[in-house]
Design a protein that fits this description.
Bound molecules: nicotinamide-adenine-dinucleotide
Number of domains: 2
CATH class of the largest domain: Alpha Beta
Number of strands: 13
Order of helices and strands: EHEEHEHHEHEEHEEEHEEHEHHHH
CATH architecture of the largest domain: 3-Layer(aba) Sandwich
CATH topology of the largest domain: Rossmann fold
Strand content: 15-25%
Radius of gyration: 19 Å
Largest sheet: 7 strands, parallel
Distance between the termini: 35 Å
Structural class: alpha/beta
Length: about 350
């Protein structure tokens, strides 16, 4: 299959690109190369014969039309987005522009291309979204695909809007779409303003590890390579018009996650004092959702997918990757430190 991946130079998009090539797909990576992009993320496959890169914004209709006409993909996987909640609180405009207007522009370009191709039933528009559209849970319960939308941050509201647009383009125009909503991802190539790389890199440098509030917020952590695997499976086998929740079956409180990473570092880079001495509780983010948890029954029962690693195993792989890939993260530290990334 030839797949146009938007946002393929970002964290999750690049995992999809790398895995897509390994699975024998042709990949066109379309990315505007914002601060969050890094072409080093796709270096392992950028010389593969089936790989092409296009620097185009999803808000640029003419650019999208040109890329679609030249490459003639069988499917679009849409991951391009502004993705950092803290940035959405500081400056929501870019989130509306990229996540709402950009998704609308991409949908229209895809619809026009699909129509010109004779509306093939096999075409897919796969929209990648977040569990944050469902709002915040109390201590119990999980998000299913039928949970009503209740976004609470500019980021999640912009993603919820984009989900509604994608469903409307299916209902109104018949565009063959599939949607996925996933929990918090972690793993290699994660930009160092997000919680897990911040913890690893601050601990390594002996700097304070900032944790929001009392660290009680619970997230369901999904290893990025498992997520890419699930996304490609939904693209290949998911039912048109359907959405699938993807979770890691790995709920953890932020403070427990941070202490686990510190312990993994204690084992690998022993220090006179344990790394968790660096934990510093900081003023909570406004409107910080307490808990997200995914019920992944549909993707498990219909498509037979399950995560391949536990949180402990995935964190160990991630810590080992950051220890072995300093040349990747070192140049990004300046940008990340300006933001002084905190718990997401
Ligand atoms: N990271 C997570 O834990 C998580 C969880 C749930 C859902 N998601 C969703 O998954 C997708 C990917 O997330 P990520 O963490 O890889 O994000 P990321 O911020 O690492 O990467 C986003 C990519 O999109 C590109 N991009 C931004 N604006 C663009 C534009 N106008 N045109 C073209 N490209 C543009 C950026 O350059 C970057 O390469 C997003 O849609 C996000 O909402 C992420």
């Amino acid at each position: 299959m030839k797949i146009l991946v938007t946002g393929g130079a970002g964290f999750i998009g690049s995992a999809v690109v790398r895995q897509g090539i390994r699975r024998g797909h042709e990949i066109v990576n379309l990315d505007a190369l914002t601060y969050a992009a890094n072409l080093a993320n796709v270096a392992p496959v950028s010389n593969a014969p089936g790989y092409a890169f296009e620097k185009v914004s999803i808000t640029d209709r003419a650019g999208l039309d040109d890329v679609l006409a030249r490459h003639r993909p069988d499917a679009v996987m849409h991951l391009a987005a502004e993705s950092h909640v803290d940035r959405s609180i500081d400056g929501p405009a870019a989130f509306i522009e990229t996540n709402v207007t950009g998704t609308y522009t991409l949908l229209e370009a895809a619809r026009s291309y699909w129509t010109a191709e004779g509306k093939p039933e096999s075409f897919r528009f796969h929209h990648i979204s977040t569990d944050e559209v469902f709002g915040s849970l109390g201590p119990t319960g999980k998000f299913t695909e039928d949970t009503p939308y209740d976004p609470r941050s500019p980021y999640s509201a912009s993603k919820a809007s984009s989900d509604h647009l994608v469903r409307a383009w299916h209902e109104t125009y018949g565009l063959p779409v599939v949607l996925t909503n996933c929990s918090n991802n972690y793993g290699p190539y994660h930009f160092p303003e997000k919680l897990i790389p911040v913890v690893i890199l601050n601990a390594l440098h002996g700097r304070a590890i900032p944790v929001y509030g009392a660290g009680e917020n619970v997230r369901d952590w999904l290893y990025v390579e498992d997520h890419a695997d699930a996304l490609l499976l939904v693209l290949e086998q998911g039912v048109v018009g359907r959405s699938y929740n993807i979770g890691g079956e790995n709920e953890a409180r932020n403070i427990d996650l941070v202490r686990t990473i510190c312990r993994l570092l204690d084992e690998r880079r022993p220090h006179a004092a344990p790394h968790d001495r660096l934990v510093e509780f900081v003023t909570d983010r406004p409107g910080h959702d307490l808990r997200y948890a995914i019920d992944p029954s549909r993707i498990r029962e219909e498509l037979g997918w399950r995560p391949s690693v536990t949180l402990e195993e995935g964190l160990a792989k991630t810590v080992d990757w950051y220890l072995a890939n300093e040349e990747w993260w070192r140049p990004l530290l300046t940008v990340a430190m300006e933001r002084r990334g905190k718990a997401s």
